Amino acid sequence: MVSLEKVTPLTSDFLESIGFYWHTDEDKSPYVADELVQVKQSEADAYYEATNELYDMFVEAGEYVIKNNLFHELGIPFNITEMIKKSWESDVHWHLYGRFDLAGGIDGKPIKLIEFNADTPTALFETAIVQWALLKVNNMDDRLQFNNLYEAIKENFKRLVVMNGDTEDFAKHYENWKILFSSIKGSIEDENTTKLLQAAAEEAGFVTDFAFVDEVEFDGQEGVFKKEVNFEYWFKLIPWENIGIDEGDLALMLRDIMENQSAIILNPAYTLMFQSKAFMKILWDLYPNHPLLLETSYEPLVGKKQVEKRVFGREGANTVILDENNHVMEQEDGIYDEFAPIYQEYVELPKDVNGESYQAGVFFAYEACGLGYRRGGLILNNYSKFVGHVIDL
User: Fold this and answer.
1) What b/e sequence results for 209-238 when a residue is b if at least 16 CB atoms lie within 10 Å of its CB, and e otherwise?
2) pLDDT for res 392
3) Cα dihedral across residues 391, 138, 381, 148: positive or negative
4) Where are the beta strands (DSSP E) in 137-283?
5) Distance between CA atoms of 21 and 24, rounded to whole angstroms?
6) pLDDT in tens, 306-337
């Protein structure tokens, strides 16, 4: 049973004062829970170790995908593949951050990988800022969380310059490089999540600016511009698969920019490999029966409870849970029918006294650095709640 600690919730006025406006769901219920999951230090340590091990496995499997040209199996648009290869070849295309979704880890349940949101993960603001503020407002020790996410991302911005070197040497190598941050107009969540990353980059020492995507100028030879100012880096909170499928001209322009080394794009194109849920099948082939993995196939599993989901689905859309006889236990409609399905062994998530399920999200920025939970039904969808945590000493 998931252990919870009741806390005084953050007020809407307070949340909006820090830029967090998506605090209330469409049904008028609070998005952020007024409870914290109680996590033992040993459980936090296990999440840390498991996530770091999984990232190493992803890197090994990524090399395998590229060497064997398995992009089609992952559902990756053809116009992104050359950028994936190019970004993989050089460390300057640095993976800034991602989020592993994990089953288990508490209540005695083993940790299992569900998927890796490597390109444009949500819940960054919630994990880095909101759950920490819950401890502060409730006069709790703010060190009692597995949560150095904001600081880790700041350090990772410095690694854009020092790579695997010491981030304390950042100032020796820095030459007033500029990062332009972009999201799509109309989503305050995307905009303010992007601006949170911008703030981290500024604190790290970069010159930064923000522009909505339709305000950015691209030149295949010269790079990325805002009002004639040239930027060495462009961070886009836009999924690579959307660029490949819906923005073909932009994909071609970014390919030229990358080939001419006139700008570096964050997160790099190779994160689309990791983002594809079909990557779980590659992992299972390379690490069969690994204790952190769930069996995954392109075809339905025989005689097992399983989850059918689309390779680029989001927020539980187009997900179906099937029992051992292939009968539907639960399903969620969605807009991702165009993508191929994968089939992953079903694992029950830890539950609280009300029967609600908890899925861990562990952020990775050079190393595992921040834990938060989503709470909901059998399928975690757009109405799932964010639940912070506290380490129970």
Assistant:
1) ebbebeebebeeeebbbbeeeebbbbbbbb
2) 92
3) negative
4) 178-182, 207-210, 217-219, 223-226, 229-231, 233-236, 264-266
5) 8
6) 999 999 988 878 898 999 998 998 888 888 88
pLDDT of residue 331: 86
DSSP annotation of 377 reads S
Task: Say how far apart CA 68 and CA 64 lie, in whole Å.
Answer: 6
Q: Is 217 helix (H, G, I), strand (E, B) or coil?
A: strand
Which tokens sit at 356? 């609600």
CA 56/CA 290 separation, integer angstroms: 13
pLDDT-derived band at 195 (thresholds 50, 70, 90) equals: very high
3-state helix, strand, coil in the chain (%, to 5): 35, 25, 40
* 92-119 tens-digit pLDDT: 999 999 999 999 999 899 999 999 999 9
Tokens, residue 34: 């007024």
Q: What angle do CA 295, 353, 106 make, to 5 degrees?
A: 45
Q: Give the residue among 378, 381, 374 at the shortest CA–CA distance from 323.
A: 378
CB 210 within 8 A of CB 201: no
Query: Are 95 and 350 contacting, i.e. CB atoms less than 8 angstroms apart?
Result: no
What pTM does this model have?
0.97
Strand residues in the chain grouped as ranges (E): 4-6, 32-39, 98-103, 112-117, 178-182, 207-210, 217-219, 223-226, 229-231, 233-236, 264-266, 296-297, 306-310, 319-322, 328-332, 341-345, 357-364, 368-376, 385-391
Q: What is the pLDDT of residue 188?
A: 96
Distance separating alpha carbons of residues 64 and 3, to the nearest angstrom: 41
Question: How sure is the predictor about 61, in pLDDT bands with cuts at 50, 70 and 90?
Answer: very high
Give the residue-averaged pLDDT of 282-291: 98
**Bridge partners of residue 226, in order along the sequence:** 229
Question: Which runs of E-coded beta strand occur in 134-271?
Answer: 178-182, 207-210, 217-219, 223-226, 229-231, 233-236, 264-266
Residue 277 amino acid letter: K
Q: What is the pLDDT of residue 391?
A: 97
The confidence score (pLDDT) of residue 172 equals 79
Task: State the sign of the Cα–Cα–Cα–Cα dihedral 364, 368, 372, 376.
Answer: positive
Phi and psi, residue 23, nearest 5°: -90, -10
Mean pLDDT estimate for the chain: 95
CA pseudo-torsion sign 270, 275, 276, 282: positive
Q: Do 300 and 343 meet the contact criterion of CB atoms below 8 Å apart?
A: yes
